[in-house]
Write a structure and sequence with these properties.
six-stranded parallel β-sheet, 227 residues, binds magnesium ion, alpha/beta, Rossmann fold, globular
């Protein structure tokens, strides 16, 4: 497999906006939680059969995809009548950075660029993730879309972000594994957009992206994977 070389002009970048799940952190945790762990827990607590619970939860999630509720642990705790954060904490051993991410964040900081996490995760989820990985100290600012009551898929999010943090879309790099979110950022006018080749370490990405996809973070500094 040949490596796609992504050429970044770091001199033209002042701010680096970063997604959390599937970008800095391995999406394996979230994928496993929502498709396996939660259906299992739900079927135990509500005395339902597991295959039915799996289908029911998948259907309910699908109905809210791209909306702020989809990312709200409070909402799903209420809907499924169990504490989502407590259930997620049972899988804390699966929380972890993607390869090279810590080195990447250190180097971006060394270049003097502002590192801002922008995530659709709510504050309790962010807290859980931060408690079990090492990215927090390498970020200059942390924004949850729940702070603005608008998901990144919505233009409202970007307008609120522009008002609350000091950034210029023309000198901003944004990395996210969601095509819908990247499209939203593109519509708003973020100049440089990158996607992620394999957000879940345990499986290959099934869809392509119209944005360049990162395979190895450190290649963004012009280094070859083996060089
Ligand atoms: Mg993501």
């Amino acid at each position: 497999m040949s490596h796609q070389t992504i050429q970044l002009d770091w001199d033209s970048i002042e701010t680096v906006l970063l997604d959390m799940d599937g970008t800095l952190l391995d999406l394996h945790f979230d994928f496993h939680f929502w498709t396996e762990h939660l259906p299992k827990k739900y079927s135990q607590i509500h005395n339902a059969d597991q295959a039915g619970a799996t289908r029911y939860i998948a259907k309910r999630l699908e109905q809210k995809q791209g909306q702020l509720e989809w990312y709200s642990t409070d909402y799903w705790s209420d809907q499924f009548q169990l504490n989502i954060i407590d259930a997620q904490a049972e899988l804390k051993h699966l929380i972890g950075e993607r390869e090279q991410v810590l080195d990447f964040l250190i180097q971006v900081g060394n270049l003097g660029k502002k590192r801002v996490l922008i995530t659709n995760s709510d504050r309790p989820s962010i807290q859980l993730k931060f408690a079990h990985c090492d990215i927090e100290s390498l970020l200059d600012q942390v924004i949850s879309s729940h702070d603005y009551q608008a998901a990144k898929e919505q233009q409202q999010f970007w307008h609120r972000l522009e008002k609350s943090i000091d950034f210029d879309p023309k000198t901003t790099l944004f990395i996210d594994d969601s095509e819908a979110v990247l499209d939203s950022a593109h519509q708003f006018g973020i100049k440089q957009l990158l996607s992620i080749k394999e957000p879940i370490s345990s499986q290959l990405r099934q869809v392509d992206s119209k944005y360049p996809m990162i395979e190895d973070f450190l290649t963004l500094f012009g280094k070859t994977p083996n060089g």
